[in-house]
């Protein structure tokens, strides 16, 4: 049986004017800044006006480690939001914006799929409202001002060997990972090694997603460390006098974007730090605004729960004073079979034994989420090839873990297929069963925080770090940064740092290659194994299939 593609379904959507979507949340047309007919930014003045309201219930959607079989975390987030509205609840969805790099690489878009999507799908996966371009521009303005300061006499006495601020571009481009800048003689400045990261790994992105308002944004931008002097004392962005101009560039980007699901329910789409190299959550301002306007807010955290959910709990919730009422862990029968050793080509054949073997990965995620004191529901994202026996095997396994698994058919049926999941999630959220707490205390030493995550979440035996890394962490503690959380940069495909080690591995180590202080964002980035902060394109990038058809419509987007 042939199914329509995501983009075909999105193109057929019966979208409503964005003013009608805003009205569902009590946002007047005067408080919306439209970008066309189907998307708008919510004004800061309106956001300020609702801060005295009580919060709704926060529902986090996370997943098992991603596999080529597909899990559908964003699809489930959107489907659950639609399902809650279908059963009579006032609900909103909060998801991240898509990065151009993966869209033209291999990951695809970030708007959901099937009949559980956010629209306009093409625009969301391309330039959208220009937020990422503003972040890229602000980041690179600071880079230009640093080099300009050095060129015009270097009053701050920056050690050009210790400029830590790199440049960014929202594209996968491995050739830019390590470059030499300022070649060409005296007029072009002082040659030095530097490089590019992808925009979603920028500290500016992290700050925009954690800042509460424009004042907080500028303070955080000013606190970013961009270089060191010969005496190892830090140079901040405010020393370069870049924080004001950067805030101007980010003024509009700071305001959350409002769009709609295929069923015309409200969705906030704002911010987009990756979860494997950044903290993987949509913006605090979008989430907290939604909580003031809806009784239930469904949000997601990137990749598997070992990355996105861990950072959501230990970084976003800690910084923003949030606490989820229930966590939904997304799993598929296909992914269970793949974790159980079945090749992708054979996933359509029933194999209950492989499902049972692969469930170990799911079980570890359930246990990890429970360790934060939050109740867990497993959403089995239904694929048409799933058999009753395979679904039953997942449900039996989850029940043995002290949780509940519910089959959801939102991809195929929209909210009709997610109503059962929505009903159960709302019951648990309303029961106030959560007793949320982060995994480690602020005052724990930085290296112990890293070990806590590696041993308790990943189940590693040890953390490997040379003396240079350990000394750097101690230096930051001495400078007053010891109370910051840690942001682990690690492969998303495994609990370990080996992407090919699936399931629930044990007996491995976590090697730390580098640590970076994001003083403005308020965390320490810990780069593990071979993870890259600038991805590369695959052998056959998705860009090869993306084009305009004869009618001027986009084809080839996921």
Automatic annotation (TrEMBL):
<keyword id="KW-0436">Ligase</keyword>
<dbReference type="GO" id="GO:0004329">
    <property type="term" value="F:formate-tetrahydrofolate ligase activity"/>
</dbReference>
<feature type="binding site">
    <location>
        <begin position="67"/>
        <end position="74"/>
    </location>
    <ligand>
        <name>ATP</name>
    </ligand>
</feature>
<protein>
    <recommendedName>
        <fullName>Formate--tetrahydrofolate ligase</fullName>
        <ecNumber>6.3.4.3</ecNumber>
    </recommendedName>
</protein>
<keyword id="KW-0067">ATP-binding</keyword>
<dbReference type="InterPro" id="IPR000559">
    <property type="entry name" value="Formate_THF_ligase"/>
</dbReference>
<dbReference type="Pfam" id="PF01268">
    <property type="entry name" value="FTHFS"/>
</dbReference>
<keyword id="KW-0547">Nucleotide-binding</keyword>
<comment type="similarity">
    <text>Belongs to the formate--tetrahydrofolate ligase family.</text>
</comment>
<comment type="pathway">
    <text>One-carbon metabolism; tetrahydrofolate interconversion.</text>
</comment>
<keyword id="KW-0554">One-carbon metabolism</keyword>
<dbReference type="InterPro" id="IPR027417">
    <property type="entry name" value="P-loop_NTPase"/>
</dbReference>
<dbReference type="InterPro" id="IPR020628">
    <property type="entry name" value="Formate_THF_ligase_CS"/>
</dbReference>
